[in-house]
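Progress note, sequence design subtask.
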């Protein structure tokens, strides 16, 4: 992992992409996460248009897959400046993501990691992300709040997340940002069983027992999606 100029969690995610046969997608996600806060913009006179454009990229499984959608659609336009303008996306940020991606691909090839694309395999992509970021897990509690699994810290899905109104039982977040609350940014839904597969040294089955099977409001604790 020392070969990669990224944090250890991201490096582990990239390495897992080889095991789960989706290394191309993981490299794209890593590049987009590196510049994530600077991708979309909201002109004051076009806030509704900008928010609608952003929602068009939303993926049912969460934000990492939404970022993948953004990059792949931009790539399909041959990296068009006009497309970025029409979708309220920062062209400079996307160009930087492309540069980072090229660097990461070069590094992965240097350590002989096979670059395989499997864009429809949503579960394997999320398993790879979980392999890297297994520390960053939260579970929906009966009160409707999320609690981090290891430290029982109360956290909230960021309003910009595609999962903000969805409330999956188990989520993985890229980072925590404190403003008025402790917000989880860049969130995906996961299956708690994946944690025993990718991090058996860190999690024990007992702490992953799903207490959300007890009575909860119908809109909460939706089962993990596998689209």
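Output:
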């Amino acid at each position: 992992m020392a070969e990669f100029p990224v944090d250890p969690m991201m490096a582990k995610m990239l390495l897992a992409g080889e095991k789960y046969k989706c290394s191309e997608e993981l490299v794209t996600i890593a590049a987009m996460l590196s510049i994530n806060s600077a991708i979309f913009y909201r002109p004051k006179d076009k806030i509704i248009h900008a928010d609608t454009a952003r929602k068009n990229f939303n993926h049912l499984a969460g934000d990492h897959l939404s970022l993948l959608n953004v990059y792949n659609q931009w790539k399909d336009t041959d990296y068009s400046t006009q497309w970025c303008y029409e979708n309220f996306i920062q062209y400079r940020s996307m160009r930087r993501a492309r540069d980072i991606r090229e660097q990461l691909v070069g590094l992965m090839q240097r350590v002989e990691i096979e670059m395989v694309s499997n864009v429809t395999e949503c579960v394997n992509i999320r398993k790879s992300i979980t392999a890297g970021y297994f520390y960053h897990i939260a579970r929906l509690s009966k009160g409707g709040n999320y609690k981090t699994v290891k430290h029982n810290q109360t956290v909230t899905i960021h309003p910009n997340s595609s999962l903000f109104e969805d409330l999956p039982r188990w989520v993985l977040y890229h980072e925590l940002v404190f403003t008025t609350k402790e917000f989880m940014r860049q969130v995906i839904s996961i299956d708690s069983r994946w944690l025993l597969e990718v991090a058996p040294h860190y999690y024990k089955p007992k702490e992953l027992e799903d207490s959300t099977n007890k009575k909860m409001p119908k809109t909460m604790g939706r089962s993990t999606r596998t689209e």
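The chain is about 40% helix and 10% strand. Work on this subtask will continue into the next period as scheduled.
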